[in-house]
Here is the input.
Amino acid sequence: MTNKRLLKAFIKVPWPIYKDDGAWRPPLVVERLMAFSPKSPVFDHLDWQAWIARRNGRPVGRITAQVDALHQAQHGEGTGFFGLIEGEDDQDLFDALFETAEDWLRHRGMQRIIGPINLNINQEIGLLTEGYDTPPYIMMGHARPYYRQRIEALGYQPCQRMLAYEAATDYPEPRAIALQRKRLARRIRLRPFDRSQKSADLERLRSIFNDAWSGNWGFVPFTEREFKALGRLLLMVVPNDLIWLAEIDSEAVGFIVMLPNINEATADLNGRLLPWGWLKLLWRLKVKLPASGRVPLMGVRRHLHDGPLGAGVAMSLIHKTGKAGLRHGILTSETSWILEDNSGMRAIMERIGGAVSKRYTVYEKSLGQR
Here is the structure.
């Protein structure tokens, strides 16, 4: 995008595509402008290009292609990304969009393409492939059902599947979990995020996340600049008691963040905060939080994985955050995304009554030679 006018046009491509889709939630244009700003920390390590497809001068589709230097350093596999795919139901349109993105990546030496990744692995990823009839939670994607067919027709195959679990925050805690949690309570200390030591606590969260997720598919660490920027956004809308840290012997070993589901509060703003949208949003978030929330960030240090203490930390954090959410009027929460093959986390969610509400797929394709 070479100027703000083009960037706004890129951001607005989805509006006519979803005009009759009651489940779609328009993003806030001002937030999208910030996300794509050259000052955004993700661009410290991301090279990208975006395209708009037009028919008779009218925008009908869009796509991005990205090369993430951190991903290359971590995995060294010559993999590029596509992302932010939107388009009318036209196979020729999808052919043209993907051909353009693939050629851009080939010219940069990439041998494989995966996506959708919007813009890197620590942001929105995956194509919605089940759960089209309900609105997405905050920072989760939506899609038209035909996207899957159009992308697969181009030779893309699933390389990873992710799940969104929805559960009541006042879930009836199974007796066995309650007993285990209470038994471990002597060792595990839980505390809310401390704004008086904001920088130190944000760094604790980043350290835990980068350790906890380091063995996961596609992992790329959060940089210090990225996490500080994320923290500034989180602390604007998240009360202290919806961010919890777990400590064992004074060491921070786990954390959880529940975001109020801002998509509930912005549904009728049509992406606009001006002239009066910002007042509506502020009132809705400050007077009473939305009735739903999302857990986008959670982690337990790797040395505790696969053991009862690690499970105890996870269950304690979920329990504490659920109770805090209830006090704020949050009745339902989504935990996402969870890898389909993450049997441990899936078991925890199902034991507290959680059910899969949406499925997302990341696709891959060999770029080969044209």
Summary: The chain has two domains: 4-161+362-366, 167-360. The chain has 13 helices and 14 strands. The domain at 4-161+362-366 is CATH 3.40.630.30 (Aminopeptidase). Residues 121 and 218 are 7 Å apart (CA to CA).
